[in-house]
Design goal:
There is one protein chain. With 169 residues, this protein is mainly alpha-helical. It has 2 domains: 4-54 and 153-163, no CATH class; 56-147, no CATH class. Helices cover 74% and strands 0% of the residues.
Length: 169
């Protein structure tokens, strides 16, 4: 099945692929911007498509996160998964607890694994940050992360090949 996903994505417009990769919890902007550049897109287009893809999930995720996790926690495997992800998020989110929305911006803006819009949604839910503040903070953090990743790509520090597992480039 995993082999069919790249084949399906090859049939989509490159702009849509970049937005999808930007919306995925594993890759987000860290993968979408280098991918867009590998497709030959100009940096500004890569930036805006990636940011848009990453931001499209924020509002639905903020609304749906709590009810979905509550429903899934009824199953033992999901309960263990959410316990693990909540603990990991809590460990990495001292600034969120201390500074709330400003801390959430900083947390989301750092383009490292286990930070980003998806982790920001989890943190906002855990720390009960109101929707409007959480939404604005996460979107602001996404834009900041996009600027950082774009800068790293422009400087040649980050490329699509660097994002791939060994032997896949």
């Amino acid at each position: 099945m995993l082999n069919t996903i790249p084949q399906y994505l090859d049939q989509l417009p490159k702009e849509l692929v970049v937005m999808i990769v930007g919306a995925l919890p594993v890759s987000e902007l860290r993968g979408a911007i280098p991918l867009a550049l590998a497709f030959g897109m100009p940096l500004i287009k890569a930036f805006w498509l990636s940011v848009l893809g990453n931001c499209l999930i924020v509002a639905p995720a903020l609304f749906l996160f709590k009810p979905v996790t509550s429903a899934l926690r009824k199953f033992k495997a999901w309960a263990r998964f959410f316990d693990w992800i909540f603990e990991r998020t809590k460990r990495n989110s001292d600034s969120i607890q201390k500074y709330e929305a400003l801390g959430l911006i900083i947390f989301v803006a750092i383009p490292l694994p286990m930070t980003g819009a998806w982790s920001g949604v989890i943190a906002a839910s855990l720390f009960k940050i109101r929707f409007r503040y959480a939404f604005l903070a996460i979107v602001t953090g996404v834009v900041c992360a996009g600027l950082i990743v774009s800068s790293l790509c422009a400087l040649g520090v980050l490329s699509w090949n660097a994002c791939l597992p060994a032997g896949r480039g």
